[in-house]
Design goal:
Layout (H helix, E strand, L loop, with lengths): L1 H13 L19 E4 L9 E8 L7 E5 L2 E2 L5 E3 L5 E3 L3 E2 L2 E5 L8 E4 L4 E6 L7 H6 L12 H8 L3 H15 L1 E11 L4 E9 L2 E5 L5 E4 L16 E3 L3 H7 L13 H5 L2 H4 L2 H14 L7 H4 L7 E2 L7 H7 L32 E9 L5 H4 E7 L8 E4 L23 H6 L13 H14 L1 H34 L3 H35 L29
Antiparallel strand pairs: 1-2, 1-14, 2-17, 3-8, 4-7, 5-6, 8-9, 9-10, 10-11, 11-12, 12-13, 13-15, 14-16, 17-18, 18-19
Helix pairs in contact: 1-15, 3-4, 13-14, 13-15, 14-15
Length: 542
Amino acid sequence: MKRTMILFVLILAMLPVAAAPADVDAERPFGCSALIAGKGTTVDGSILFAKTEDDTPRDVDFLWYIPRRQHEPGSVVKLANGGTVPQVAETWGFFWDQNPGTPFSNYVINEWGVALGSDACPSREDSEEALAARGDIVDGGIGFELRMILAERAKTAREAVEIAAGLLDRYGYSASGRCLHIVGPDEAWQLQMVRGKQYVARRVRDDEVAVTANTYTIREVDLDDPANFICSPRLVEYATERGWYDPAAGKPFNFAAAYADRGSYDNPRNTDRTWGMARLLDADYPMTYEEARTGIMPPAVTPDRKLALADIMAIFRDHYEGTALDSTASYSISPHRGPVRPICWITTHRTTIVQQRSWLPVDIGTVFWRALEQPCSSVFVPRYLCAHRIPGSFQAAPVRADTATAARVDFHFDMPDTTWELGLDTSGALFKLLGDLADEDYADRIDPIRETWREFEETAITLQPEIEKAALDLYGRDKALACELLTLYSNALAERSLEIARRLVETMGDTIAGGSSSGMAPAPGMGKENCTPESESRADRR
């Protein structure tokens, strides 16, 4: 470890300070991507839900398990903008992938397998102040706490949507707009919310793959189909009153066209990513990226094959290689530093793939595969739903979320400054450094990194049936023992990923220390530390 830390200091001193690519929209540096594959599109009948988190280079992730809790009568949930929601008597346990200080970049999966993550989808709606004045935002509205409340109260994805609808009808949504992905073992939904009290939720069909990248994707809405749509009571009426939809034109109501912010609806930074996912799902996808840039992408794609877990991993490592959008000239520059914003990007600090298999006990059937930093140079490590004990290297925060006594909103938005001071013995710093080193000489370094992680992931995927067979055999006789087996297995893979990442860093560190051909000049700072100005508002983060 001492040698590793010496290398770490040396590398930091030699890496140049990276600037954001000149052609990237400086006002909107973030951009999360999401995909939900229905059970009819996968090789084994599972639902696969993949989601990136893209924020600033300073952002970190801590993984917690918040257990079931009992609450006194009269208890309330404190909301970020000052309001409160009455608390229920008992709340379910859930994993919280915490991104401290951010209102909307937190990923949660509860003990019933209900997983929630979101994409910012700006709307054309008025300001919070204007909506509050006319009663469409009450007590500051609901935002940060929404997914937490749903995780604590819902046993199914549909129940989560129904609870959310009640909260939105009561308080209104505080942010400009958002797509909240809600995925359980049996079905998946996308809840697309507008600032205020307008929203629509659409069930993802079993035979399709929904793709989303920071703009609304729900188009035609069947108000007479409650099995597949749950809408705000005045969804169409309100859009008509605002002049965003004209029934007399003879066209079906199109939610995205009516409510999306004009700057996001056909923004290439968004449409390129949805098109990029679509063309990897269907080699003969009929739409070009130029057509997608007009804002006409459908909400979902029919894939040309049955999808495996490895297919989803590959999609989220994509940089448009082999297409007209590939601007890297065979990696002569890093694909994270070109003028076009791909799916895998320099601001990606977490990618999660949730594997939902309803035919297994949820403790075994729900697995989330988590990769830190850019997934092309990182690794997806599985964790089973009942593996609540998490290695300390993934929980390096100075204050623990699972034992915090402050209200969650106070805890989350008032973390000590030392929260972001991570050493190389922590998962966040280690994978961040690995990504930085890969970027400095991407053409020469990415292949050995990818081959190393390919072997890791293939081994984990190959072992999965055997591990689950043993756990399932134990589960019927001793549930606690089965969960202990899955915990030991999950933690062993997590710790092993850190060992391998450290070895990769040391190998590249030796090259840098001995002199390399990458042309790096001494400069202070860490590779990505200054990519995004700290003045960037955290209010609309993904």
